[in-house]
Design goal:
The chain has ten helices and 14 strands. With 275 residues, it is α+β, with helices and mostly antiparallel strands. The protein has one domain. The strands form five sheets. The chain has a four-stranded antiparallel sheet, with no helix packed on it. A four-stranded mixed sheet has the order 2-5-13-14. The longest helix has 11 residues. The chain starts with a strand and ends in an 8-residue tail after the last strand.
Length: 275
């Protein structure tokens, strides 16, 4: 299913119903998820330091500073007060106000994802859908006002020679109105850049929720934000064990689910079914 989803709007989230995706996590992160809700990390914490740059490096970074000033982009960053001398510094600042929840756009298993994100043999694959993710977003009161914008969409993987081409897919001068708030064109461009990644990461088949927090003067850095999950039975559509899981691990995961009164059936991996 190759499509882009709109900026989050409570009247539009119906298109996400039944659209399922997964996440591979180690058991310690599973416990964190069960006890504290969904953690959405700050974009500055990602291992891939090209986050936010793949699209911008061949486009935004080539634009002369005086031309950028004409777009009004520096108004998106009041803490800089128009005194931005480094565009890379500006992007890093924007990243520090951006939070990204990453998911695998499949419900079937992937050895690469088990190895890369499961981190150890005793890990799990959790499946949910876009409707449930959007529900917990709008159920959190901190996101109801105009302090945040959010969008769910598929990541586009870009080969180095295609960066200029992809840059032209996101117009710099394109205003949007999101949840009743007019978003300046330059900020739309920066926001959309988080839906592009380097091609070597294409095995991730990623769909992501990107949340941007508007500037508040002197606000401290946030390493992440939490989405409370009030109904795990509804949110979790499936749980599968790693193909390398220990024999005792199923009982441990089942015991954990019982503590939270979750009746989702645990499935074994089918990867080693013929061994």
């Amino acid at each position: 299913m190759n499509k882009d989803f709109p900026y989050f709007n409570e009247e539009q989230i119906g298109i996400l119903q039944g659209y399922k995706f997964s996440r591979f996590i180690s058991f310690d992160k599973f416990i964190d998820f069960m006890t504290k809700g969904l953690f959405i990390p700050n974009a500055t914490l990602f291992e891939d330091n090209s986050e936010g740059y793949v699209l911008l490096k061949e486009g935004f970074l080539k634009i002369k500073t005086n031309e950028l000033e004409k777009t009004g982009i520096f108004k998106c960053f009041p803490e800089y007060d128009g005194d931005v001398t480094s565009k890379s510094e500006l992007i890093e600042h924007y990243k520090s106000k951006t939070f990204v929840s990453c998911w695998y756009n499949e419900t079937s298993e992937s050895i690469a994802m088990w190895k890369y994100y499961g981190a150890n043999p005793n890990s799990v694959m959790i499946t949910t859908d876009g409707y449930e993710l959007s529900k917990i977003y709008f159920a959190n009161e901190q996101f109801i006002d105009n302090s945040f914008i959010a969008k769910m969409g598929l990541v586009k993987y870009v080969k180095r020679g295609e960066w200029d081409l992809k840059y032209n897919e996101v117009p710099l001068f394109h205003n949007r109105e999101i949840l009743g708030t007019k978003i300046d064109a330059p900020e739309v461009f920066l926001f959309e850049s988080f839906f592009f990644k380097q091609h070597p990461y294409s095995f991730e088949k990623e769909i992501r929720l990107v949340i941007r927090k508007h500037e508040i003067e002197n606000e401290p850095y946030l390493p992440g934000i939490r989405l409370e999950i009030k109904n795990y039975n509804s949110f979790i559509k499936g749980i599968k064990l790693s193909p390398e899981a220990s024999l005792w691990f199923r009982d441990t995961v089942q015991w954990t689910l019982n503590q939270f009164n979750i009746d989702t059936k645990i499935e074994s991996s089918i990867v080693n079914i013929f061994t």
